[in-house]
């Protein structure tokens, strides 16, 4: 069959392209322009790479970056296995399935700053259930003076808020596995572990990569929850990248250094997301190849 | 456009990127890319290698600016050399 190549569909992308250029490309160009100048009111001085040098060697920002990676990888290490476990335990059909599904995804419906406020009250020693309870058990719990308490609480808060997303993705992934696989496993008298390891987990790979990607990017940009809960303290022990950036750009009006910082932040997210993108694409390619060969 | 506070170096930078993208488009029309496997761990098209090259060049520049006292022009030379190697054998 002779195929006529017609690329006119590309013109349909034009409106989107215009929109993206105004919402992303032009602001990004402006940020690049800002990053090499010292801007005071209406006057701008060219400073070259000075802001980049300063930002890359700023111990506060290096600390925030390390904390950011530590935070993102900690919550991924907890939320992914926990989400899979919850998805496996959820009822498969009937009214119980709907009821449990609604209960599980409720935290996802709460806005970020509300999550922060809820946990702020929840962890207070005088009126909060968790704070009061832990204090009553004899442990002096305080997220405003003890950095470890603050960290554990923020991680707990994020796990509470976002594990449902992983659980939801895995649940839909599990429902998409044809019954025939389980029947074959029963004929082979496969153990529950073998079913999980060789049927369920491989079938979940695609949704898990999407889940991990979403959770990584999201947690890497986390702002409202720790800001409301701890304000970045005690000291700067829970100050993450976006909060450092905001206090620099809006608090101190240091437009040049914060522009340089934004570009570095952007490059980190871009690199990690690209690696995930490549991983997803290759996984799908492998799948197509094996299906084509079968 | 004054609110965008353009400077000559950034204008040259973006013009170069735009010219490279336009060049890549023309190259693609003249001879479409074929996906292949080089020294990179995954099979890549010409556009993939171009993007990887730009991103790694950004990191090369940041590394040189932040953690050495070498001139940024050397970073540029190194990036161009790396870009050529990547496009040819990547």
Automatic annotation (TrEMBL), chain A:
Biological processes per GO annotation: transmembrane transport
Subcellular location: Cell membrane
Presence of keyword Repressor: no
Keywords, in A-Z order: Membrane, Transmembrane, Transmembrane helix, Transport
Domain ABC transmembrane type-1: 65-276
UniProt entry tagged with the keyword Transmembrane helix: yes
InterPro entries xref list: MetI-like, MetI-like_sf, Sugar_ABC_transporter
Superkingdom in the source lineage: Bacteria
Membrane topology value: Multi-pass membrane protein
GO cellular component: plasma membrane
Pfam families, alphabetized: BPD_transp_1
Transmembrane region(s): 12-36, 69-89, 101-122, 150-171, 204-224, 259-280
Family: Belongs to the binding-protein-dependent transport system permease family.
Protein name listed in UniProt: ABC transporter permease
Source organism (scientific name): Halovibrio salipaludis
Lineage: Bacteria, Pseudomonadati, Pseudomonadota, Gammaproteobacteria, Oceanospirillales
UniProtKB/TrEMBL annotation, chain B:
Entry's transmembrane regions: 6-30, 51-84
Classification via InterPro entries: DUF2160_TM
Keywords, comma-separated and alphabetical: Membrane, Transmembrane, Transmembrane helix
Entry protein name: Small integral membrane protein
Source species: Halovibrio salipaludis
């Amino acid at each position: 069959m002779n195929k006529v190549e017609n690329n006119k569909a590309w013109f349909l992308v034009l409106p989107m392209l215009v929109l993206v250029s105004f919402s992303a490309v032009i602001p990004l160009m402006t940020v690049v322009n800002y990053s090499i100048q010292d801007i005071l009111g209406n006057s701008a001085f060219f400073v070259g790479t000075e802001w980049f040098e300063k930002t890359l060697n700023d111990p506060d920002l290096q600390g925030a970056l390390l904390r950011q990676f530590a935070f993102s990888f900690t919550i991924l290490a907890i939320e992914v296995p926990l989400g899979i476990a919850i998805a496996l335990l959820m009822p498969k059909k009937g009214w119980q399935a709907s009821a449990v599904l609604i209960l599980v995804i409720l935290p996802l419906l709460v806005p970020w700053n509300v999550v922060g406020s809820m946990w702020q009250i929840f962890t207070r020693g005088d009126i909060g259930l968790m704070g009061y309870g832990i204090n009553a058990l004899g442990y002096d719990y305080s997220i405003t003076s003890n950095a470890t308490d603050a960290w554990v609480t923020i991680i707990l808060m994020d796990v509470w808020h976002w594990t449902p997303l992983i659980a939801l993705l895995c649940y839909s992934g599990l429902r998409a596995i044809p019954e025939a696989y389980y029947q074959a496993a029963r004929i082979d008298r496969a153990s529950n572990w073998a079913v999980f390891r060789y049927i369920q987990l491989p079938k979940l790979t695609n949704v898990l990569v999407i889940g991990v990607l979403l959770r990584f990017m999201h947690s890497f940009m986390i702002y409202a929850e720790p800001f409301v809960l701890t304000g970045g303290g005690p000291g700067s022990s829970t100050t993450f990248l976006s909060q450092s950036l905001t206090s620099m750009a809006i608090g101190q009006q240091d437009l040049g250094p914060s522009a340089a910082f934004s570009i570095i932040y952007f490059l980190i997210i871009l690199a990690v997301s690209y690696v995930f993108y490549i991983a997803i694409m290759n996984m799908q390619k492998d799948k197509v190849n094996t299906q084509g060969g079968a | 456009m004054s609110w965008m506070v353009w400077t000559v170096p950034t204008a040259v930078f973006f013009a170069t990127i735009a010219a490279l993208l336009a060049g890549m488009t023309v190259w693609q029309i003249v001879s479409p890319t074929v996906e292949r496997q080089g020294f990179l761990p995954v099979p890549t098209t010409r556009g993939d290698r171009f993007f990887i090259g730009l991103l790694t060049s950004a990191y090369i520049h940041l590394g040189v600016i932040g953690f050495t006292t070498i001139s940024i022009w050397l970073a540029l030379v190194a990036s161009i050399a790396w870009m050529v190697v990547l496009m040819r054998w990547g």
